[in-house]
Amino acid sequence: MAIYLGKRKQGDLVQFRSSTIPTKESHGHLYTAVIGPFKSKVGASYFARYGRNNPHIRTADDAERLARADPLMEQAIVEESMTDEELAIALECDAQDQHEYSPKPPKPLPVNPIAWQGTITTQGEISCLTGLKTN
Questions:
Q1: CB 3.0 to 4.6 Å from 31: which of 6, 71, 126, 129, for a disulfide?
Q2: How many beta carbons lie within 10 A of that of residue 71, not counting itself?
Q3: pLDDT tens profile 105-122
Q4: Helices (H), 14-83
């Protein structure tokens, strides 16, 4: 199945696969325009990210060639060659690494209760009038 980018009404691009060439009749209810076909997800992702108003990307082949040459696309190229099981394991490991190595929020400073003694007093129940009628 070929890979395409569908442009939605909001202007964003959505990657999808289709066994037939998308037409207005088959995909017009989903997208305002369709770009492709692309040879790979890597090329489609590159076009979605860098293709808009880029004079160097005029065709899907341009996007594919530039994506394969761009070091920022290395992870996408590696993921493309993985099986679904390998990719699921890699994403799970990445999420675990992010959790383990992300900076922990600082603990709040302890409040010295002795310094606050006598400075806070309770007043009892306070009615809260908002000025709105409820009935």
A1: 6
A2: 6
A3: 666 666 665 555 555 555
A4: 24-27, 41-50, 60-69, 74-80
d(CA 5, CA 16): 6
Q: Is 16 helix (H, G, I), strand (E, B) or coil?
A: strand
Q: Is the dihedral of CA 28, 30, 31, 37 positive or negative?
A: negative
Reading the block at residue 129, the tokens are 């009038």
For the chain, the 3-state helix, strand and coil shares in percent, each to the nearest 5, are 40, 15, 45
Q: Tell me the C-alpha distance between 65 and 50, whole Å.
A: 13
Reference 4, options 46, 54, 41, 50; nearest CA is 41
Phi, psi dihedrals of residue 98, rounded to the nearest 5°: -60, -40
- Contact assessment for residue 4 and residue 18, using Cβ atoms and an 8 Å cutoff: yes
Q: Is pLDDT larger for residue 134 or for residue 4? A: 4
Residue 58 identity: R
**Assessment of whether the complete model's pTM goes beyond 0.70:** no
Say if residues 3 and 21 touch (Cβ distance below 8 Å): no
